[in-house]
Amino acid sequence: MKVKNGYRIEDLIEQIQAVNKMVELHQGDDFMQGQYVYRRNVFLKQLIAELLKLDGYSPRLFEAIRNSVKLLEKDAAKFSKPLPEDWQVDLRPLAA
Question: Would the pTM of this model clear 0.85, i.e. be above it?
Fold first, then answer.
């Protein structure tokens, strides 16, 4: 599998990790936590888009995409904001 956008993916993962620390730091403050969750979700959507651009397929790639989507869904449920229609992805074809 060729990775043309590896640095972008690495940067997004680092940004997500940094924002995750801020989400944890602001537990109990729904407003601030919601702001950081929103920011994390923007990065997660960008990460999913970059992962989908990769040439080839691997179980690790599928797992990364699936975990990212699960986190988005969890955040959407917690903050009562459903994911937009264009971000609801059926991953079953990738598992086949």
Answer: no
What is the spatial distance between Cα 64 and Cα 48, in angstroms, rounded to a whole number?
Answer: 8
Closest among 92, 49, 93, 95 to 68, alpha carbons compared: 49
Tokens 């869904």 locate to: 73
pLDDT for 31-87, tens place per residue? 898 889 889 989 988 988 888 888 777 888 888 888 888 888 777 767 655 556 666
How far is residue 91's CA from residue 94's CA, in Å, rounded to a whole number? Answer: 5
Domain residue limits, the chain: 6-95
Report yes or no: 36 and 26 within 8 Å, Cβ to Cβ.
yes
- Angle, helices 30-53/6-25, rounded to nearest 10 degrees: 160
CA distances from 4 to 14, 41, 53 (A): 18, 23, 9
